Amino acid sequence: MSEQGDDSSDRPARGASPLVTAFNIFNCAVGAGILSLPYAFSQTGAILGVFVACAVVGLVVFTLNVLLRFGDAHDAWSYQALVQKALGRRFSLLVSLTLILYIFGSCVAYTIIIADSVGVVAQFARNAARASSSAASPDAASAAAAEANAAATVRACAIVLASALVLTPLSMLRKTRSLGPTSSLTVAALLYTTAAVVGEGVAKLRAGPDGAPDGAPGSSGGSASWWSSVDLKRGTARSFSGETLDLWRFDEGTVLALPVFVFAFQCHIQILSFYAEFRDEPRDEVGGEARSPPERLVVASDALDLAPEEEDVEGFPGFSREAEASSDARRRAAMERTVLLSMLTLLVGYATVGEFAYATNPDVASNMLQSYPATDPWMLAASASMGVSAIGSYPINHHSSRAALDDVLCAWFGWVPAAPGMAPAKRHATQTLVFVLLTTITSLLVEDLGVVFQLVGSTAGVLVICFVPGALLLASGASKTTAARAAGGSRLGGVLDGSDESAETLSEDAIGPLVGASPSRPSRRAGRHWTEGGGSIGGYDELGAAAAAADELRAALLPAEEEEEAEAADGGPSSSARRARSVSAARRADAARGAGLVLLGVVIAVSNVYVLFFARAGDDDAGAR
């Protein structure tokens, strides 16, 4: 794992707008997911599928926010760096290897989608050329053999040329925001595919199952009779083509559909890389000029004796930690809004495609485009657009896999770690070329990864999406320091960095000299306004205009003595006791949420492995007998 230090030269530059970040999230999530979601709807049912999709979006948004929260707390710029800092080096190496395997499989799938899209277009062109040719048609066997050879040749050429001329240059880019233009193509592909699927469904619905236009003589009613076919007691309805479709289902297929829903929204591996490049939110302005830091914060910095390098953030001496905390809070809130809006947009698009594709073809294939005729020009264009989408998704996913690979190699060979995309040129190029070469070879050898990738998805994917966020929350629940750090600090609004050392430093003894500590607190921390012996250079009264600010600071930083005494007289808990209980409750809540995520991941992984290798194997044996 990368040891991300404090050297700002290694920190990714912040400049990506919310729109570019949203496009990158779309690019990361959209891919094989949109092609397989209709099949997932067919396994869960039209109504239950919508509820499952909404629940999954809630889960994904929550876990993404967990990663953002702990990424801020640990100053981690990548998924694997966060795992190392929060959960330890050994666990981080395991996660890195899992990420490499998981993303490698995803990139192989993207390469296959590109090849399949080119193959569909090429087949359409061959059919058109054959129809316009006046040459005598060969016999059926010869024609089939020639078609198979042509398809294999086109597929191999598409994989090699796309990998060499398109995927390799895009994967060489070091920053994810540089992929903004290709990410916008993914959004366009999603919109077009959604429109094409909806258009096909509406046309089929209006025509009715007998193919006659709605309302025409002999028509079975089309859209007029569809709603009357809904049977809530049996949980069935008539599809647009006249077949029966399920409104809800509960069987082995439902279990296998859960990972499809979950991983269709997966962008957890890349989210911290996107966040590292997400721009800072502008500071509040008054009269067209940025507001100056409150004087009390400058005095607070002096009293805490902040080191010079910790100051001058955004040009304000002594305003560093408060200004930085406020800026980080606004930035994370903006990122969370971007994530939420992105996931909701994906939900609308996915649900629309899933419902219409399932209602049009109840026996929809795992790749929905294979359920539409190759002669349909609108769906042909949709297939081509999904190939373009895969081209954009490949480098976004490869970016995180390359970072994980670099971390593993640095741990093995003792290389100097680097932030994602910031490795030396030779190392960066070699890792990229080897990765693209291996995905190219695998795509040439394997057309359908089948059960292997279902297994990887239900284990490696669950580790990424459920286990790691759950482990972060469990670790936070077990550590008071981590909980305080992840929560964003104490009443100081971010003055604390969350470490034990800073918690000890920020004591009443450190603040007492500034705010007029009582004689019962004689010890004072040496600072710019105090001598080593504890005597004042000028005294509290000589601070002049800072006196009022000091009173405010005391109220913000230390529990007021009068408040403590009044609470004690009333027999109520002190402010410190209430704060302690609040922190304890937050830790328990984190632990409960973490345990729930880990348990959910175990259920998904175990149930899928059982269905894939035991339940289905038993069914096959029974069928053989």
Descriptive overview:
The protein is 68% helix and 2% strand. By secondary structure, it is mainly alpha-helical. The strands form two sheets. The chain has a two-stranded antiparallel sheet with strand order 1-2. Helix 15 (450-478) packs across helix 16. The longest helix has 50 residues, at 575-624. The two termini are 52 Å apart. Mean pLDDT is 74; it is low at 1-9, 216-220, 285-320 and 488-546.
SSE diagram, text form:
Elements: H1 18-29, H2 32-44, H3 46-74, H4 79-87, H5 89-132, H6 140-172, H7 180-207, H8 223-226, E1 236-238, E2 244-246, H9 252-264, H10 268-276, E3 285-286, E4 289-290, H11 295-304, H12 320-360, H13 377-413, H14 425-445, H15 450-478, H16 480-487, H17 500-505, H18 508-515, H19 546-557, H20 561-569, H21 575-624
Antiparallel strand pairs: 1-2, 3-4
Helix pairs in contact: 1-7, 1-10, 1-12, 1-13, 2-3, 2-9, 2-12, 3-4, 3-10, 3-12, 3-15, 3-16, 4-5, 5-6, 5-13, 5-14, 5-15, 6-13, 6-14, 7-12, 7-13, 9-15, 9-21, 11-18, 11-19, 13-14, 15-16, 15-21
Helix-strand makeup class: mainly alpha
Strand content: under 5%
- Topology order in helix (H) and strand (E) letters: HHHHHHHHEEHHEEHHHHHHHHHHH
The total beta strand count reads 4
What is the strand arrangement across the widest sheet?
Answer: 1-2
- In one word, what is the shape? globular
Give the uncertain stretches in residue-range form: 1-9, 216-220, 285-320, 488-546
Mean pLDDT: 74
Rg value: 30 Å
Helix share bin: 55-70%
**DSSP helical segment count:** 21
For the sheet with most strands, the description reads: 2 strands, antiparallel
Termini, distance in Å? Answer: 52 Å
